[in-house]
Structure formats: structure tokens, C-alpha cells
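Human: For the file, kindly provide a plain-text protein record giving the amino acid sequence and the C-alpha cells, at your earliest convenience.
Assistant:
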Amino acid sequence: MDGTFFTDVWNQVQKNITDSSDALGLSQVEWYALAAHAMGQLVVSALLLAFFGLLYLCLNKTVLLATRRLQSAHIGPGHLQTGLRYLFLLFTTLAIMAQYDVPDTVLKATARAGFVALGFYLAWLACSKILKEGLNRYQIDKSIGQLLKNMLSVLMTVFAAVMVLSQFGFDVFSIIAGLGIVGIAVGFAAQSTLSNFIAGVTLLIERPFRIGDWVKINDQEGKVIKIALRTTWLRTRDNIFTMIPNDSVASSDIVNYSAEGPIRVRLPLGIAYKESARQARDIIMPVLLEHPKIIQSSDMVPMVRMTGLGDSSVDLVALAWISPEDIDFQPGISAELYESIKEALDTAGIEIPFPHLQLFIDDAKGLKPLFEPLYSTRNASSTAPDTR
């Protein structure tokens, strides 16, 4: 019984497969001939890959030997190898497509598109080389140079894509119009991003600061690490990275501490009125001159000046110059100078006052009723006999 059941199931499965094949028109297909044709196509494709691969290896070896013998900086083996790989892929793709009976119109369009893309790549290499030489000749800022390179790459890519699509019969003008409509839609949807992008381009052109400058933007003080098209990166003295949108940077006050070279450090000080300002100056000056980070050139001499007469002190200020490379350590330098100045003034016996008030009561008879009972009680307790 079990054998009969399984036989019936198998016969039903075969019948279902046969009915499905008849309905799809697959019963007339010669599967053995189709399999033989497919295997033949795969073998031919493998032979084509091997042939073009061997040809690529020979040409690649020849290019490497030629560039080594020429030893010319103008010949880039990397770009030549990239071109050879591209040609290898293009010819291999065309040969394989021809084996699978792809229409001639598609083959020709693919070939034209491939050579158009190769032409744009060569044009991009030439323009990049010219741009690089121009940037080096005129010593253009690296940030602007990077912006120009990115713009060149984007423009070349867009034009290449449009021209490649045109080889397959696409309407170029319709594509450009569609891109314009998409650009308008994206512009409305990303107004903030576009605003930051335009502000970034403005910053790169006007150059209120450069990479490595120490700046203050929107109450954020730090060293400029990166100027991107959307944000500006700062690193604070606490090694905290801050990203500020370029739109905010362009519309705010910018203080650049590094733009004009050395900066001057101001140290407010105070001495008591009984002390001599001249003597304090003579004591503070050696401290400024002995510090290794203080500039001592003829036009940047450290000095100590009196700035005013305060409520409880004679106000002085110590002025010293430090180099742009030491701006990162300016708080530490100020702390070291303050500590050394205080030790020097303490050693010389010069008082550094603190704010205080003195109250003088000449004739306070109105307070006598308040304090007289207190004095009477204290005197009585002190004169009372000891009854213990």
C-alpha cells in the first residue's frame, strides 16, 4: 500500500510539471541544445576574458618599464594603469555583449559612451594638472585650491554623465531641464545647507582666517582645524572640537589672533599706595625678560606701565609679546608670569593689596544708649565678689 501511494504521488507531480511546461510553452524547448549553447557561450566568454587579461598584463608591464626608464615626473604610471584597466573592461564588455547577440545599435552606443567617458577622464587629468600648476605658481591658499578641484570634478562628472546618456538616445535638453527642476526643489528643501555652502565659498575667497589660525567666533575660541564647505572646525585649548555652520561664521564678528604675527599679553597688577611704582617696575622687568617664551626684539620690548590709581591699589600692567606658535599656551604663560611676579614682589617686601574698607567714627554719641547697658553689665559681673 505504501509503495502504491508514493507511486501515485510521483505520477501526479510529473503530470503537474508537464501541464505547467505546456502552459508556459516550455515543452518545445530543446534543453540539451540550450545547455550546450550556454556552455559554449560561457567558454567563449572565459577565453575572451583570458585574452584581454593577458593583453592588459603585457601592456601594463610595458607601461611600467617605459615610465621607469623615462623617469619623468610628467608621466603618471597610476593614471596610465587606470586607463589601461578601463580599456580592458570596455573591450571585454563589448566582446561579451557581442557573443550574446546584443543588437548592433546597443553595441555602438556602448562603445561611443565608453570612449566619451574616457575622453572626459583625460580632459579631467589635463585640467587638474593645469589647475595644480596654476595654484602652485600663484601660491593660492590650499582651501581655495581644494574648492576649485572639487568644483572641477563635479562639473566634469555631470557633463560626462549627460554626454554618456545622450549616446543611448536620451534627450540631453530634457535631462538638463529635469536637473534644473530637481535643483530648484532641492534648493527649497535644503536652504540651510545651500546657505552654509555659499557662506563657505565666501569664507574661502575672502579668507578672514586660515587653517592653523587661532580665532574667536561666536564666543568660541580655538584653532582652525578645517574649513569645509558647510562648517568650520575649531579645536579649543581643552582639545574639544567645535563645528560652527559657515552661515553663522560669515554673519558674526571674527577675531583672528594669528593674522598679524605675535600678540601682546597683558597682566593687570596692583601694589599698595605706600609702595614705589618705580621699584615694583624694576622688580617685575627681570621676570618678564627671563621667561623663555617672551619675545625680546627691539620693537617688541616687554614693559611695565601704571594704568591708574584704584580704590585700594596703584594699578599696573605688565606687557609682553609672544609668538603665534605659542598662542595655544598663552594661559599657561600668563599663569607662570603671575606666579613669578608674585614671588618676586613678596621677596622684595612689596605689598599686593586686596580691596578693603576702613570705618572711622569721630563722634558717635547717638550709639551711647545702645552700648552703655552692655558695658554696665560687664563691669558689674567683673567686680562682684566670689561667693563660692
